[in-house]
Amino acid sequence: QIVYHGDPYSAHNSTEFLIYERGVEVGCWGMCINAMFSSLYSYLQRPLGSYLGLKGLYFLGYFLFGLGTGLIGLFPNVYSTLTMCTLFGVMSSTLYTVPFSLIA
Fold first, then answer.
1. Cys staple from 89: which of 19, 25, 34, 42, with CB 3.0 to 4.6 Å?
2. What's the CA gap between 59 and 64, in Å, rounded?
3. Considering the domain boundaries, does residue 2 fall inside one?
4. Alpha helices in the chain (DSSP H)
5. Residue 10 lies in a domain
6. Is this prediction's pTM over 0.90?
7. How many whole angstroms separate alpha carbon 64 and alpha carbon 22?
8. Could you give phi then psi for residue 13, rounded to 5 degrees?
9. Does residue 53 form part of some domain?
10. What is the pLDDT of residue 32?
11. Burial class (CB in 10 A: 0-12, 13-18, 19+), 87
12. How far apart are CA 85 and CA 72, in angstroms?
C-alpha cells in the first residue's frame, strides 16, 4: 500500500485495487529475493565466522537489518524495497542460526 499507493478495500475492477494487486506481486518477488539471500548468507556463514566470529556475525546481521530498515523508510520505492530485501535475508539467516550457535 505504501509503495504503490493501492487500496485493497476498493472495488475489484478499480485502478486502486489493480495497483494494490501489482504491489502484492512485487512483494512476492521481494520475499523470493529475501529467501535466496538468506540461503546464500547461511552458506557463507561458516567462512565468514572464521574471520568475524559468532558475535561479529550476529552484529553484522542486525546492523544490515537496521541499515535496510532505515533506507526503506527514507526511500519507499520499488527498487530500494527489492534491494533491501537482500539485507533482510541476511538478518533472517542470522536470526535463525547464530543465536543457537552462541548458546551451544
1. 34
2. 9
3. no
4. 15-74, 78-103
5. no
6. no
7. 27
8. -105, 10
9. yes
10. 92
11. buried
12. 10
